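Final report, Chapter 2: Outcomes

The project's central promise was a pipeline that accepts a single protein chain and returns its three-dimensional structure in a standardized token representation, suitable for archiving and comparison. That pipeline is now operational. To close this chapter, we reproduce one record exactly as it appears in the project archive, with the input sequence first and the structure output second.
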Amino acid sequence: MDWLIHSIEWILGGLLHWVHSVIEALGYWGIVLLMAIESANIPLPSEMILPYAGYLVQQGEMNIHLASLAGAVGCVVGSLPSYWLGAWGGEAFIKKYGKWILIDEDDLADARRWTARFGDWAFFICRMLPILRTFISVPAGVLGANIWTFTIFTFIGSLIWSYLLVYVGIVFGDNLTEFKHLWHKFDVAIAVLLVIGGGAYLWKHVAKKWMKSSA
């Protein structure tokens, strides 16, 4: 078990180092870039990006409003290509190529249920939910959501999410001494949760379909 934990720590540490390096090198534009990647159906959790921006806010190197705004802008930038991909390809695209972007008909059905229940507000709500916020854009395009409504709700929901995660980083920075001895254990816990969640998502979208096709 120790080797697994050390491997996870090594992988997570490398990814976090890269995220921090991008933000330090590009500033607010680095946040825009990283959050755009996260919103373009690429599993780069915003939980790894924005708290570090919050830490830099606490250190006086960034502004909380600009950091949060950069996060929201990045979400919109990354979401629009995914939206247009869904609008262009439609449901047939999901059936044929969805497995390559880890989106399937079940995800589309979930999106339909969300929009049936909440209307366009579903896109606002989903932007503040882990995992769902990353993959809602393609189904929104497939379902023909109004592009302006989708963009506005994506921006507002992402702005709230960004403020929340930036604030988490500020709190951590304010209490660096008190949290430092706990951070290693917290880091491992987050890593394990990410691996479990990512593994479950991959099982749902890849392994089960591979087993069906080979049966």
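Archive annotation: The chain has a mean pLDDT of 78.
This record, like all others produced under the grant, will remain available to the consortium after the project formally closes.
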